[in-house]
Amino acid sequence: MINKTINQKAWFMVLPVLALVAFNAIIPLMTVVNYSVQETFGDNLFFWEGLKWFEEVMRSERFHDALGRQLLFTLLILLIEVPLGVGIALTMPRQGIGVTICLVLMALPLLIPWNVVGAMWNIFALPDIGLLGKMLNGVGFDYNFTQNTFWAWATVVAMDVWHWTSLVVLLCYAGLRSIPDAYYQASKIDGATSWQVFRYIQLPKMKRVLTIALLLRLMDSFMIYTEPFVLTGGGPGNSTTFLSIDLVKVALGQFDLGPAAAMSIIYFLVVLLLCWVLYTLMMRNETN
């Protein structure tokens, strides 16, 4: 019998990573948990409140409205960006200089900072001087995203689609490139149509990258803050005040740290639950 020597020194290499994670995630999370069950009036004085703030948030009509807007926004961008990204990936070339050009063009929106995206679309969509606003008003639409709820939503969704569809495209294109040519050759011999190739070869092979794309876009859409805040400020009224914007208003605008901390924890749990449900549904019947 051979005795194996177990070397635990490798754990020392992981300690810096654990320390970084603790500093960036665990410690701030514990701070939020601390504020969510207490009340403070400054001078580092805290008073135990228990679950009072959680009950207040869950019963708040304001929170329910913000959550409803957030869920609607997430549903819209997933329904638009994922099919659009798959469609663009399918039309991209597989070889030649066109591949490089397409990949660079697809990557460009992802390189632009979020605040710059919001500022660009704010100027682009201004009803009086913006190219988009002037064009829509010129063809007969009464376009004004600063005063009309429908146009505010349409502009925010269009901005997000422009900014993030490229991520879905790049992930799907990587999945398509990983499919061996033998599958396409076999389908050609069998006389399969383009739809059959997509349904039975390409789509199953893209399942994992589509799962990643859906999870990333779900999480990103729930964390969106900078772009709509710069574009609309959450208006007109509260029509584009998503959960993140409302949380900042409660925490920094009203300085209600207890309710804001409770809201942030509920916010986190909602995102975690949705990601788990989506991942479970996407990976159901997965055997490989």
Keywords:
288 residues; mainly alpha; MetI-like fold; two-stranded antiparallel sheet; 13 helices; 2 strands; 2% strand
Task: Please give a structural write-up.
By secondary structure, this protein is mainly alpha-helical. Helices cover 72% and strands 2% of the residues. It has one domain: MetI-like (MetI-like fold). It is built from 13 helices and two strands. A hairpin with a 5-residue loop joins strand 1 (38-40) and strand 2 (46-48). Helix 7 (149-177) packs antiparallel against helix 10, helix 10 runs antiparallel to helix 13 (257-282) and helix 12 (243-253) packs antiparallel against helix 13 (257-282). The longest helix is centred in the first third of the chain and has 31 residues, at 61-91. The protein is globular and about 75 Å long. The protein starts with 10 loop residues before the first helix and ends in a 6-residue tail after the last helix. The model has no long low-confidence stretch (mean pLDDT 89).
Topology readout:
Elements: H1 11-36, E1 38-40, E2 46-48, H2 52-58, H3 61-91, H4 97-111, H5 114-125, H6 131-138, H7 149-177, H8 181-189, H9 194-205, H10 207-222, H11 226-231, H12 243-253, H13 257-282
Antiparallel strand pairs: 1-2
Helix pairs in contact: 1-13, 2-13, 3-7, 3-10, 4-7, 7-10, 10-13, 12-13
Number of domains: 1
* Helical residue percent band: over 70%
Number of strands: 2
Task: State the CATH architecture.
Answer: Orthogonal Bundle
Shape: globular
- Alpha plus pi helix count: 13
**Beta content:** under 5%
Structural class: mainly alpha
In what order do the strands lie side by side in the largest sheet?
1-2
Largest sheet descriptor? 2 strands, antiparallel
CATH class descriptor: Mainly Alpha
CATH fold topology: MetI-like fold
